[in-house]
Design goal:
25% of the residues lie in helices and 42% in strands. By secondary structure, it is of the alpha+beta class.
């Protein structure tokens, strides 16, 4: 199963912190990051896939 997350309010000071927090939160739910794109300068889209840790699925 795939899940898309939109992160708003990104600045150069908080970009890594906001993205890292979202990745950690999703990993707790067994999702892993597949891809990430920036929309302009203030938003990012992260796409996660649910699967077993260490699995190729």
């Amino acid at each position: 199963m795939y899940k898309t997350v939109l992160i708003k309010g990104i600045t150069t000071e908080n970009v890594t912190d906001k993205i890292d927090k979202q990745i950690v939160e999703m990993e707790k739910q067994s999702y892993r990051l597949i891809t990430m794109s920036f929309l302009g300068t203030e938003r990012a889209v992260l796409v996660f896939k649910k699967g077993l840790k260490g699995s190729l699925l």
